[in-house]
Structure formats: C-alpha cells, structure tokens
Amino acid sequence: MNIGNLYNAALSLLQQLISIPSFSKEENKTADAIEHFLQSKNIVTNRLLNNVWATNKYFDKSKPTILLNSHHDTVKPNKQYTRDPFKATVEDGKLYGLGSNDAGGCLVSLIATFIHFYNLQNLQYNLILAATAEEEISGKNGIELLLNDEAFLNTTTTLQTPFRAETPWAAIVGEPTLMNMAVAEKGLLVLDCTAYGRAGHAAREGGDNAIYKAIKDIEWFKNYRFDKVSELIGPNKMSVTIINAGTQHNVIPPECKFTVDVRVNELYTFEEVIDIIQQNIQSEITPRSLRLRSTNIALDHPLVKAGIELGRTYYGSPTTSDKALMPFPALKMGPGDSARSHSADEFIFVDEIKNGIELYIELLNKIVF
C-alpha cells in the first residue's frame, strides 16, 4: 500500500475506534475492531485479554526486534466537552473525538507502518505490533501483562534477552510528541500519606489535630527542592493533590490523609526519594507502586540516531507512559500534541497522522545496527 492508501485506512480505523467507548479495563470492543482490521489485511493476529499483537510475516528469531506499541484505552470525557466525544468528525483539517490525540493517532499510524513492512522479506530486524490496554491507569493487564506472557515470549524469543549486546532491540512507544523524540521521561511515584493525631472535642483544649500536623508536612512538600537536576527532564517535582480529614465540625480529627504526586528524574531511585521524604515529615507514607520508574534511551542508540538524521529534536518528557514498564530501550514518539491530551473536544490534525506514518517509515528505514 502506498502512503495515501495507508493514510486513508488509518484514518478510517481511527474514526471507528473513536466511535467505540474504550475506557481502561473496558477495551474489549476496540480490541475486536483492531483485530478485525488487521485480519482484513491478511495479518495473523494474537490476543491476550484486550491486548492485540502481531509479528511481521517473515519473523526471524536470529534478528533484533523492534516493538511498535501504543494503547487503545482512553480516559473518560470531562464535563467541558461541547461535542459528542464518540462522534468522529473532521472539520478544518481536525479530527475530533475522545482518544483521537491520545493515543489514537499514534496507534493507527503505527498500525499503518506495520502494514507497510509486514510482507517485506529482507528486513534487517523483526517488527512486533502491540495495541495494548490499560495505559491510562497504568494497569497490570496491558503491556506489562503481554511482556510477561509465555506465549508472547515463546513466539519472540529475542524478548527474553533484551539486555544482550548482540541483540540491540528496542521499542517505539506511540504517544503524542509532535513526532519529536522523548528520549527520557520522569517516573511516577504516588504516595498516600497519613498524619495522626488524637480525637477530642473542638470546644475544649483536648485532642491533637491531625490537620495541623499534615499542614506542616504539606508545606515541606511544597518547598523542598531536590539537589540533583537532570539535563533532560529537570528536577524532581512533588505536588499534593488530594486531602481528606474530619467527620464533623465539633470533633478534632485524629487522622488527615493526603496524596502526593511525585515525578522523579533518572538521577534518583524511588527508594532514595522515599528515604529523603521519611527523614523530613511526620506523616506515615505508603507508595502505591514502585513500577513506573524514570526511563531513558541513549542518544547513540540506532533509533535515536536515525531520528536525529531525519531532523527530529529530542527532549525529556515530564509525563509517564507504558515506556516505564519496558525493561529495554524505548523511544516515545508519535503524531499529535501532548498538550491536547485529556482536554475537552480533543482532536488531532489529519495531516499529523499522514506525516506520522511517513516519518515512522523513514525512521525504520534509516536504522543501522
């Protein structure tokens, strides 16, 4: 298929996906649509829950492998939508609809790219396409499940040894980056914190107000600055985002719970960050997960070098993605703009999809191992 046909097929698929609600953990119908689309192109598909994947026709286990990955789940539409979020309409060169930008445009562009290479016999590498679930909630039944699935690993044995020097394989993770290269991204550490006091009557001097203790700790989170600043993704950032305390107006609250969103650069481990926090606050802290760590891909990696040759810029991303769950080099790159993600009346320029397909193909053609 030429670029025009690939673009038309990708645009049609994206319009279909937008029309199907696919909130995280509810992606079965979009998984069906992706599976049927690929099968209509005579591509053999595999499925694990709501994850759909395929390998190029002439997959050769002796060659390095490149994973093409993006997600088909979406967040729920916010209340500021003025359009039907499930109606895919094109106006003034923009395709509107929930998930059009994050990350539908990336997904269909990668699918079109995979179709372009699917039947080629002399590729110097293998390609795996994976359209995965639960990215928006960092769920465990998405790319993480797939990368640990026995059937998936048995089919693609190079995935079992991603750190071997003689197997320089990697991934392209489709997220909206204006087709520039996010070579690093901050890790996400969510902390549930509890300040403890002692209940008492608000009219008396008894009790120990947990809210006041929490306020002191929250002030620390607001003002503390970590020493080490990354050249690519800047300093660590901590934001208190939720607070809950009290049951009624005349009772001194014995507990105050609050949540902290911590974005961690590659110069700190999560354990180091937690240790610093524990040394400086009174509240008890419990991390929700230690899975979404900071990641980076070397600037001399073949994928990045190919992108630089194509005139693409590179940067560090403040947001996290499924790239954090990949124990091998991964480049985050895709059509669309991250600033539009999760916004009301979400859209992607249709030209971004066409350009995305073209650039993905050029990037893969330029790779030299």
Tell me briefly what this model is.
The protein is an alpha+beta fold and 369 residues long. It has helices at residues 3-18, 28-40, 100-118, 143-147, 150-155, 210-223, 270-280, 302-309, 350-366, and strands spanning 46-48, 51-55, 65-71, 89-91, 94-96, 126-132, 170-173, 181-185, 187-196, 200-201, 237-245, 251-252, 255-264, 284-287, 295-296, 314-317, 330-332, 347-349. The strands form five sheets. The chain has a six-stranded mixed β-sheet. It has a four-stranded antiparallel β-sheet with strand order 11-13-9-14.
Overall spatial form: elongated
* Portion in strands: 15-25%
Can you list the strand order of the major beta sheet?
1-2-6-3-7-17
Q: What's the helical proportion of residues? A: 25-40%
Order of helices and strands: HHEEEEEHEHHEEEEHEEEHEEHEEEH
Specify the biggest β-sheet. 6 strands, mixed
By DSSP, the count of extended strands is: 18
Distance between the termini: 26 Å
Q: What gyration radius follows from the Cα positions, in whole Å?
A: 23 Å
Please, how many helices? Answer: 9
Structural class: alpha+beta
Low-pLDDT stretches:
159-168
> Mean of the pLDDT scores?
94
Structure, explained:
This protein is of the alpha+beta class and 369 residues long. The protein contains nine helices and 18 strands. The strands form five sheets. Strands 1-2-6-3-7-17 form a six-stranded mixed β-sheet. A four-stranded antiparallel β-sheet has the order 11-13-9-14. β1 and β2 form a beta hairpin. α1 packs across α3 (100-118), α1 crosses α9 (350-366) and α3 packs across α9. The two termini are 26 Å apart. Residues 159-168 have low confidence and may be disordered.
